[in-house]
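Re-run requested by the PI after the first attempt was lost when the workstation crashed. Everything re-entered from the original request form. Ligand of interest: 4-O-methyl-beta-D-glucopyranuronic acid.
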Amino acid sequence: MKLYLYTLFFILIPGLAFAEDGSQLWLRYRPLSNNQMKALSTVITSVVSDEQCDSLAIDELQIAWKQLTGKELTVTPSVQEHSLIIGTNKSKLIQSFGFNKELQSLGGDGFLIRSAKYKDKDCFLLASEGKTGVLYAVFNLLKTIQTVYPFPSSMNVKEKPSYKIRILNHWDNIDGTIERGYAGHSLWKWEDLPSKLSARYKDYARANASIGINGTVLDNVNASPEILSTAYLIKVKALADVFRPYGIRVYLSVNFSSPTALGGLPTSDPLNKDVRRWWFVKAKEIYSLIPDFGGFLVKANSEGLPGPQDFGRTHADGANMLADALKPYHGIVMWRAFVYNSGMDDRAGQAYKEFLPLDGKFRSNVILQVKNGPIDFQPREPISALFGAMKQTPIMPEFQITQEYLGESNHLVYLAPLFKECLDSDTYSLGKGSTVAKVTDGSLFKNSLTAIAGVANIGEDANWCGHHFAQANWYAFGRLAWNHELSSEQIADEWIKLTFNDKKEFVEPVKEMMLDSREAAVNYMMPLGLHHLFAWGHHYGPEPWCAVEGARPDWLPSYYHKADSIGIGFDRTLSGSASVGQYNSPLREEYNALDRCPERFLLWFHHVPWEYKMKNGRSLWAELCYTYDKGVKQVREYQKVWDRMEPYVDAQRFHEVQSRLKIQAKDAVWWKDACLLYFQTFSRRPIPYDIERPVNELDDLKKIKLNLKHHN
Ligand code: GCW
């Protein structure tokens, strides 16, 4: 009976009849309250545009208006009192305001939103040098309408993106699987392309445009040569055509040995004439199909992939050859610096050693793509020393939005604080204030090619990202790529209001939980600078004891934690692996000195005795125990916070988040017990008696073997 009434309720109330599956992301346009509507209707009543070309932006505006206010936003041929005037700098009407120079300086993606007078009429101006900028301005205005109360009676917004290229990297394979993807299969339906276009392609483009993302690498960096076959390029073209109106360019990851694997050449040596010709011809073919193709992303001589070193050439030789082929069409090469070889050399220092000697040797259309930290997207890493070291080579940060090492799509971990921690870190490259943000946005070294990449967490799940809160990480990446000065708090605030609701009772506690969540994950997984304690084969659960016969040592946790009877941690000081020496002063000295090293990086840089006294007076062992315990407590707290939110959230999203928090809480205990019980076999000290006792036996934990299919 209860079920019957419930069903009836949904059938009878239109608008509630659709499932709240999260598919609308942050683009929901919920009806405004009467007060909000009043404030808005006193300043904007109609829209005018003297250009056809902005129809997409106008459409978006009109759709949103209808949903927000219940009214049509009428398009008028001429300016009226309270008109919203929209257009590019080409429009005569826009030009009449005299902002030409300012608009030019903001570029095709930047925009102005201004209160202005037109022949004594009060109006709002929304303008850009380019069409994409106009679309961005519309999304910005719509965001303001939904998140700022009351709607301001006058506006003076001027925005220009921090990075020219704001790009997602999809690790999507052409067989439809996604490497490190936790939200179902790939969105790209290669078997249906080019003739059948999924409706989600447009939704994807629109969502990206709404946060300023303007590029997408469609395929995995572990690239199949087949992606460059004519059959696939025609499919890529079909996607590029859908994305183009939204200002999104398509890029491809390429396999360095494509000339051999696809073209049948005996070699892929970058200095070989036939190889060079092969790439030139391939570039020509690509651009004949996709005139605005963005360029290539390359993972070479990394984790077993082919690269120029197979032929005794350097990374610069390889990158430059591709850059030469793309140059006539203004394409770029994003060359990854994620390289490390198995051996005795500290993995954390290898990319720097490999690439620093090549500084200044790359073509101007090459940009080096560097992961935020020197190892691999761990819950916490210091920055890669390459930021700020390569002074003559543009560098783009690579962040991981997909939560490979952060609980996949089961854990609620808001990543803006992680991204910000990297961007705001000082490299001291040209003295104090040389932050990663300034090193990479072109302001410090005056380079004009600037970019930032995020490894996408998007799949074909209805809610796109697996966990409803993982949408916030896609959103945060886009917002920070647009403006790296935004705070994590501001981004969370926007996202919550747009995605859920604007009730203070909901926004505040949920925001607090999000802002705290990355630190919680560090606490229950790898506190105090620990890293890579993950299980073999997947990167979900703990296996600090992991030993696989014949395995590369640098793929095993013991390589990183180095726990023994004396202590724990990787000695990267000048008397250890010396990787600390790759940082500029004063970072180098600070990290090198045990008593000055920030405790969040302690075990990253030092092998520390169990009895070492921490700043708060506890021993290292005790501090490790308390920190793991704190992480567990934080997640238990999130469960309480979320359960209290039930009145403010639709049932489906409430329950889905609730059930994932249960998994996260169990996982946090798993992490804590596994790490503490295992490290205790070395420390031989008791777990402080005032914290929760382990609920697992170490032997049982060692038997856990996850079903990879479930997790990948
Ligand atoms: O961390 C490793 C991942 C690989 C990934 C690689 C990379 C795409 O475990 O799955 O491969 O990094 O970034 O190239």
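Saved to the shared folder this time. Confidence is low (pLDDT under 50) at residues 1-17.
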